[in-house]
Amino acid sequence: MTTVTMTKKARLLEALKSGEQMTAKQISARFGIANPTATVSDLRFDGYAVYGNQGTLSDGTQVTRYRLGTPSRAIVAAGIRALATQGVSI
Questions:
Q1: Closest by Cα among 20, 10, 86, 77 to 43
Q2: Where residue 62 falls among pLDDT bands split at 50, 70, 90?
Q3: Domain 8-85 falls in which CATH fold?
């Protein structure tokens, strides 16, 4: 029997794909990711639309909750324009 080990980033992505929203503190505690914001940036560079929604906890603390979403037309258009300025044909 073969055991498949998922990376921390892959486990985070699976959680986001299942609809979970998490703060950086929750990501760090659950997946052992030392720098959650860098991992979220990595997912974005991999092409995933990870959004950070600002919110307030019951004690008044500001937090960002990360979730996976669908990119808007404006985001897709900006990406296409950025590629075009680099001479990449689509």
A1: 10
A2: very high
A3: Arc Repressor Mutant, subunit A (1.10.10)
